[in-house]
TrEMBL record:
<feature type="transmembrane region" description="Helical">
    <location>
        <begin position="72"/>
        <end position="95"/>
    </location>
</feature>
<keyword id="KW-0464">Manganese</keyword>
<dbReference type="Pfam" id="PF02659">
    <property type="entry name" value="Mntp"/>
</dbReference>
<comment type="similarity">
    <text>Belongs to the MntP (TC 9.B.29) family.</text>
</comment>
<dbReference type="InterPro" id="IPR003810">
    <property type="entry name" value="Mntp/YtaF"/>
</dbReference>
<feature type="transmembrane region" description="Helical">
    <location>
        <begin position="107"/>
        <end position="128"/>
    </location>
</feature>
<keyword id="KW-0812">Transmembrane</keyword>
<comment type="function">
    <text>Probably functions as a manganese efflux pump.</text>
</comment>
<feature type="transmembrane region" description="Helical">
    <location>
        <begin position="42"/>
        <end position="66"/>
    </location>
</feature>
<keyword id="KW-0813">Transport</keyword>
<feature type="transmembrane region" description="Helical">
    <location>
        <begin position="12"/>
        <end position="30"/>
    </location>
</feature>
<dbReference type="GO" id="GO:0005384">
    <property type="term" value="F:manganese ion transmembrane transporter activity"/>
</dbReference>
<feature type="transmembrane region" description="Helical">
    <location>
        <begin position="162"/>
        <end position="183"/>
    </location>
</feature>
<dbReference type="GO" id="GO:0005886">
    <property type="term" value="C:plasma membrane"/>
</dbReference>
<feature type="transmembrane region" description="Helical">
    <location>
        <begin position="134"/>
        <end position="155"/>
    </location>
</feature>
<keyword id="KW-0406">Ion transport</keyword>
<keyword id="KW-0472">Membrane</keyword>
Length: 184
């Protein structure tokens, strides 16, 4: 019995890390905006919370709509990431226009939603199996939060090396990841 639970926990951790990798990749681009460490910590916590809420909703709705709704969440997430990245890339050319997507307020909520939509899809499929919900949700949240922090801090370091080109690189990363989500 203990071997079964250990195997289940290892599987959940691998799934949590895989789901957190998109938050890491996207956070690399966002971290290039020279954010303060306090803001980086807050963003990681918000993304962790979304990685609890979205799969929980998915688990609750899993048996009813998993086959029909899962593909749409991937499409929406990819389009959001691409749109945010394109806006970030093109705003680098215009120093006078304000940034549309900031990691605060509604921009932060859209960002957190876009990187947690895939966890909703996973939640839909987990809803059809007997998964330990609390352990799963806490694993998803912890992995995504830690990987978000790591990506943003790494992106912050890269910004110091790249200067004015870092926002274009960050936008390109977001666009590329959005395209990967859509077509990968």
């Amino acid at each position: 019995m203990a071997v079964y639970y250990a195997g289940e926990f290892v599987s959940i951790m691998f799934m949590a890390i895989a789901l957190g990798m998109d938050a890491f990749s996207v956070s690399l681009g966002l971290g290039m905006q020279q954010l303060r460490l306090k803001r980086i910590a807050f963003i990681g916590v918000v993304i962790g919370i979304f990685h609890i809420i979205m799969p929980f909703i998915g688990i609750l709705l899993g048996q009813a709509i998993s086959g029909q709704f899962g593909d749409y969440t991937t499409l929406i997430g990819g389009l959001l990431l691409f749109g945010i990245g394109a806006q970030m890339f093109f705003s680098a050319f215009n120093y006078e226009s304000p940034k549309l997507v900031q990691p605060a307020g509604m921009g932060l909520l859209f960002f957190a939603l876009s990187v947690s939509l895939d966890s909703f899809s996973v939640g839909l499929s987990l809803g059809m199996s007997e998964v330990r919900t609390v352990v799963t949700l806490l694993s998803f949240a912890t992995a995504s939060m830690v990987l978000t922090w790591a990506g943003m801090i790494l992106g912050r370091k890269v910004h110091g090396l790249l200067g004015v080109y870092s926002e274009m690189l960050g936008g390109s990363i977001l666009c590329g990841f959005g395209l990967y989500v859509l077509f990968g």
